[in-house]
Amino acid sequence: MQGYQKLDKIVVRYILLVAALTLAIFNYKLIFAWVGKLWMVMTPIIAGFVIAYILNILMVQFERILWPHKKQGYWQKSRRPLAITLSLLTILLVMLFVIGLVVPQVYNVATEAIKAFPVFISHVEKWTHQLERVLPDNSNPVMSRFEIDWSTMLSNFKSWTNDFLSGFVNTTLSTVGSLASIIVNGVLALIFSLYLLMSKEKLIDQFLHVLTTYVSKKRSRKILYVLTTLDEAFTNFLTGEVIEATILGVMVTLGMWLFRFPYAGMIGVLTGVFALIPMLGAYISGILGMVLISVHSISQAFWFLLFIIILQQFEGNVVYPRIVGSSLGLPGMWVLFSITIGGGLLGIPGMLLGVPIASALYRIIKRDILERDGYSYSQRQAFLRHAPKDSFQQIAKDEAKSINP
User: Fold this and answer.
1) Most distant pair of Cα atoms in the chain: their distance
2) Burial class (CB in 10 A: 0-12, 13-18, 19+), 348
3) pLDDT, tens digit, for every residue of 252-290?
4) How far apart are CA 75 and CA 77, in angstroms?
5) Neighbour-count burial for 290-315, b at 16+ CB within 10 Å, e otherwise
6) What's 374's DSSP letter?
7) Residue 175's pLDDT is what?
8) How many angstroms separate the CA atoms of 286 and 277, rounded?
9) Which residues in the chain come in under a pLDDT of 70?
10) If I label 181, which of 18, 53, 172, 369 is the partner at 20 to 30 A Cα–Cα?
11) CB-based burial, 252-282: b 16+ in 10 Å, e otherwise
12) Which PANTHER family does UniProt cross-reference here (predicted)?
């Protein structure tokens, strides 16, 4: 009787699962709309968790420095607020350094570009008029075979240029319009992150209380093992990213000074900032640098693009896997693999999440294999040498002999 009751429960579960999947399939648009709305509402909270996690890395280091032997009293109570303040000041000083170095030069470049823009347009118009006079018409027996309408091509080029400029202006205005919403969400996220940091130990204890109450001891230990491994991987990843970005920024700055490119300091800082995006960041900063240098000199802009491509190949295949991979304990091949898969699935967020997640999985699987593996290196190599001579029938016979010797 108990067996039938257990079977009935399993059948009911599968029926409910099929019904839920059917409802989800027929109402997927409504579900996606609700998920999108929930994501918009949760954005400040998610951003607050991210900010708190990043600040926590600095906060822990400051707490180790600030009178670590004081366990009670005023010193112990003031350690956390002071550590948070120092962490915020550190990030603020870095941001002010980047802004102070980049913004004035960007303003100068933009001023030069605005002054040069009318001259550029007049040159383009003169060039198109000259081109119209030089290009052969369709009366030419050779060109008539190709049926090329040069006037239509030139008019299409002019209309494309106008559409591009108007689209650029509209995009800029819409970006400025959404800036207020970004600022409000940023302030809310920062306030939420401060609450998280001030109550870190209490929140962790509440999470453990809920986990151990509703989950068995064995599963609780497994969950905590996975979470602590992920935490260590993300911490090492962020630390390695900052070190690698600093090295790349210095390399770009020194290389630009060596080859006498303009705006070396500014582009070096931009490269260091964008290098926090794995592998792709240097190319983004390279395109921005090329645009900025092109205002000064077109030829230097192309030479700079060649320089940044060569440097990025060296950085992506040598520096990045060694620094970030060594800090994560992840071989360089798997670093490139995780970035490729993560970027292909989720874009830039996938690149940022792929490496630490792959590192955590690598550690968990590696430790599990070491604990389970009962064969030595020589035995595994013997399996490999014997594999070409093996067969399914022979394997079955050997297995039967091992069970019934």
Assistant:
1) 97
2) middle
3) 889 989 988 888 888 888 888 888 776 677 778 888 888
4) 6
5) bebbbbeeeebbeebbebbeebbeeb
6) -
7) 62
8) 13
9) 1-9, 68-73, 75, 106, 109-110, 112-178, 278-279, 325-326, 374, 402-405
10) 53
11) bbebbeeeebbbbebbbbbbbbbbebbbbbb
12) PERMEASE PERM-RELATED, TRANSMEMBRANE PROTEIN
Phi, psi torsion values for 235, nearest 5 degrees: -65, -45
User: Position of tokens 């909270």?
Assistant: 45
Say how many residues make up the chain: 405
Other CB atoms within a 10 A radius of the CB of residue 59 amount to 22
In SS3 terms, 278-321 reads as CCCHHHHHHHHHHHHHHHHCHHHHHHHHHHHHHHHHHHHHHHHH
Q: Which residue has the tokens 């708190």?
A: 52
Rounded Cα distance, 44 and 186, in Å: 7
Average pLDDT of the residues of the chain: 77
Residue with tokens 């603020």: 92
User: What is the per-residue pLDDT across 59-92, written as a single tens digit (0 to 9) for each?
Assistant: 988 888 877 666 666 767 788 889 899 999 998 9
What residue spans define the domains of the chain? 1-68+77-106+183-214, 217-388
